Amino acid sequence: MRIIAGSSKGKGLLSPTGKTRPTSDRAREGLFSSLESEFGSMSELNFLDLYSGSGAVGVEALSRGAANVYSVEDHAPTASIASKNFALVNSASGKFTVLTSSAERFVGTPHQLAFDIIFMDPPYDVANDVIEKLLSDICTNNLLKRNGIVAIERETKKAQFTWPAPFIAEKVRSYGQGSIFYGGYSASVLPRIASSALDHLIP
Length: 203
Hints:
Elements: H1 25-39, E1 46-50, H2 56-63, E2 68-73, H3 76-86, E3 95-100, H4 103-107, E4 115-120, H5 128-140, E5 144-155, E6 167-175, E7 178-185, H6 195-199
Parallel strand pairs: 1-2, 1-4, 2-3, 4-5
Antiparallel strand pairs: 5-7, 6-7
């Protein structure tokens, strides 16, 4: 694996041993192409990577200029590799935080930071109802900014999760065995997402 673009383009990344299934270079490139077409760039954005594995996706976001990157991985040895990969990035102002935690525990807790982008790449055997509960908790705990994007990588041929309200599906991009599903808050419900609950969060 390597960093595809940004301040540390071309640097090789460490990979954990075992059954970890990293997001392919092709899928990562497609992911960031989609995100940058939406936001213009990663500059000054807050990025959350759930089930982060080696941290390759979060590292890519940091290399491309993200302001804050949170990498959440519940396997301590793999989280340690993610920390080493983040240390490879030459970022003048971006910050990274690697947390050894389950995705469920992280999103089930309020935080003093809302994210522009939340990416999750759970193992393919994680049940759809787990994904749906994560999305509900993301909304409940105000982890996604009003105009933020959630991107979820899942097995292409598998029966897929349902986006719970107030999320709506936006698009799907397939990369062979895996597909990335994009969603966000429905425009019709944005006024009902209390701004007071978001105003105290770091922009």
